[in-house]
Design goal:
Strand content: 15-25%
Radius of gyration: 22 Å
Number of helices: 15
Strand order of the largest sheet: 1-2-4-3-7-8-6-5
Number of strands: 8
Order of helices and strands: HHHHHHHHHEEHEEHHHEEHEEH
Length: about 375
């Protein structure tokens, strides 16, 4: 504000300048680390932005700031997330009372998919209806109709143990895994992905009414994706059955592809765990910041399983050499985490798991 006054800017321009400087990091944070399908989140952000003019300037500044960090930091993925946040916020600003409720939006998407699938005449309407009814409203908010149709087709073709690589129309790659639920399942899958050289951008965990789980993993770009996926598909059944040790596979991966030693400044950064009960009405948001490395997501998801927490959504981001992994979780009872004692237990268990993994890797790296 002082600088704006020195430059002779108008009070209106100074207010805009102060707003942009104070909020641009928040916009990047929300787009990459939060659930953009949460209507409460969008409404809260839109109220803080106040106007379409402010939103446009804020989006441009956020994009410019992200691009200025260094080569490769502003990826297509981050750009899409930023654009999605912009579009959802602009819609709310334009008509805050005209946006359909989440329940209405999910019901409309269900109807559209049902009509499109029945129109093909390939599958009986009862089979289509059973699939649609087995999934939560949240699934339909997170997935476009084309994706839902693809998921139905994959499951109808492959059955309970479906594993398929899916190339989306938006130029993204997704691995679809349909399995029975059992303790530590997600950790085993993410560990195997890391061992096969597959890097996850986001994960969506959908529990169906019959007890099966539909896991959707959006991937980072990969030069040899088909080969890496073939290894994953070949190994997933023995890993889930416990006849193939995922930790041994990770050790082999680290030995074959040793990671570059990060700069001293990065090694001195402490791991961080934030347990947030304010962002979402129905989930507890857990944010983990740690040095990026092979198998990190496996370590975190294994620790969350040990804590008895169900993961419903994960967003994975890398900022320079730091991983920022965000998880939307609930207790096995279906409720949010409750009470400072439980929050402290979660923080301590995750920090201990991260420290233990770091110590193990460093020991193995010594000559």
């Amino acid at each position: 504000r002082t600088i704006g006054e020195r430059l002779g800017m108008s009070p209106e321009a100074i207010d805009l300048l102060v707003f942009l400087v104070s909020e641009h990091l928040r916009m990047a944070h929300i787009s990459q680390r939060r659930d953009l399908n949460d209507p409460d989140l969008i409404a809260d952000f839109a109220r803080s932005v106040r106007s379409q003019r402010n939103l446009t300037f804020l989006t441009l500044l956020t994009a410019a700031d992200m691009r200025s960090v260094g080569p490769g930091v502003f990826t297509d993925w981050k750009g899409r997330l930023l654009r999605e946040l912009y579009e959802r916020t602009a819609q709310w600003i334009a008509q805050p009372r005209g946006i359909p409720s989440p329940l209405a939006a999910a019901a409309a998407r269900r109807r559209e998919v049902f009509e499109r699938l029945t129109a093909t005449g390939v599958h009986p309407p009862a089979e289509i209806r059973a699939f649609l009814d087995s999934l939560s409203d949240r699934y339909f908010l997170l997935n476009e109709p084309e994706s839902v149709i693809d998921h139905f087709t994959i499951l109808s073709e492959m059955g309970e143990k479906a594993v398929r690589l899916r190339h989306t129309g938006r130029g993204e790659d997704e691995i679809v895994v349909h399995t029975r639920n059992h303790p530590g399942r997600l950790a085993l899958i993410t560990g195997l992905m890391a061992a096969c050289g597959l890097h996850i951008r986001s994960a969506q965990i959908n529990t169906r009414e019959d007890g099966t789980i539909l896991d959707l993993f959006q991937l980072q770009p990969h030069d040899h994706l088909d080969l890496a996926f073939a290894r994953f598909r070949e190994r997933i059944e023995p890993v889930l059955a416990g006849t193939l040790d995922v930790e041994r596979l990770l050790e082999k991966r680290r030995a074959t592809y040793p990671e570059k030693r990060p700069p001293l400044a990065s090694r001195l950064k402490k791991n961080e765990v934030v347990v947030d009960n304010e962002t979402s009405r129905i989930f507890t948001v857990i944010e983990v910041i740690a040095q990026d490395r092979t198998g990190l997501l496996y370590t975190i998801t294994q620790a969350l399983a040990e804590l008895g927490l169900d993961i419903h959504l994960a967003k994975i981001a890398t900022e320079v050499d730091q991983a920022v992994d965000v998880f939307y979780v609930r207790e096995v009872t279906g409720k949010k985490v409750s009470g400072p004692q439980r929050e402290g237990e979660i923080r301590q268990h995750l920090l201990a798991a991260l420290a233990s993994e770091e110590g193990g890797i460093k020991t193995k790296e010594r000559p």
